[in-house]
What does this fold into?
Amino acid sequence: MKLMVVGGGGREHAIIKKLNENKDVEVIYALPGNGGMADDAVCTGIGATDIPAIVKFGKENAIDFAVVAMDDPLVLGCVDELEAIGIPCFGPEAKAAIIEGSKIFSKNLMKKYNIPTAAYEVFEDCDAALEYLKDAPIPTVIKADGLALGKGVIIAQTREEAMDAVKEMMLDGKFGASGSKVVIEEFLTGPEVSVLSFTDGKTVVPMVSSMDHKKALDNDEGLNTGGMGTIAPNPYYTDAIAKECMETIFLPTMNAMNAEGRTFKGCLYFGLMLTENGPKVIEYNCRFGDPEAQVVLPLLKSDLLTIMKACRYETLADTEVEFADEAACCVIMASAGYPVSYEKGFEMTLPADKTGIFVAGAKLEDGKLLTNGGRVLGVTRTAPTLKEAIDKAYAATEQIHFDNAFMRKDIGQRALKAL
Ligand code: AMP
Ligand code: GLY
It folds into this structure.
């Protein structure tokens, strides 16, 4: 089979490595891919949001199955367009990807179907939002409606900060059209859990839970990033909580999307907060998390391509989805200065055995692998215990070199304390 994967980061590298375990896979094309995954896929350089070029490529290369792994092309209707020319896909159609593409859509969905989430108000007018903030409870959370590269959420500790955030989004156009409407919501507290799930619209199968580390610096200090590391499973996510989430969140969400005529097929990601009043949804994503995929997929024992096809052909209930009873840790190696400003173009040296090395930002130039992004790569190790997985992941980072490399030293420490 000839496959294509739309996207080019560490998550896509993890998906590609897993798909390659299936003996029927002849070739995987990555659109665009990056130089660090050239051993595992043919990197085309085609932009992940260039839908006409993606469709043309799929047709010309007689692709048998496509995995659209990134949020932007999903929201733009990449799956709809590929399916329209007869290429079956893993990933939701645009009308279902809206669950991530519009916070207003997802909040209204949860309200309508009684799915637990933070209380909220929607504003399309800046003055009304500022008026509301005059006596809203503080801290408060301001969210741009649309996709904003993971930066559209502001936790405001003061009223002034909240008002500034609203003005930046609604008047100054900080996130373009994505911020012309905002959600202002209740500030919740509690441990956060990421639960990715496979769904075909009839069945929802949660994957092993995970924990992201979004802040740039140790002890969760510094700026928000795309994620500096992950561990799985998440120790806060007990069997009892998992059962409650299935009943109050996962199944109700799948059913709600069906009832709205927006059947979701693909990976539905539940960003949860375990509050004093039970688990609540912080966000939905219409795709695998990055770097959650980098810990969840290495623990998957079943064949990923078979599961992805089952999601597309609605046979998930009859498909084996099994995870190893182990732990995983992924440490992200970034370029110093990320997420603000950083240099690129440093030569990278990787060990010969690239198991568990998922490259996010690199390019090949004259046979040399050079850094080409803020988050450069992730290193994942699995082991019987979380402690061992963490130690092995950090030991593996010592085999990898590039100038100005930077990583958090405490990935997984919070989870270890919770155990
Ligand atoms: P999101 O992009 O929606 O995942 O939000 C980014 C981060 O902001 C989340 O991972 C949470 O840590 C935090 N966050 C979002 N919504 C809330 C909320 N209502 N209360 C507290 N923290 C939140
Ligand atoms: N790691 C969070 C996300 O992928 O949205």
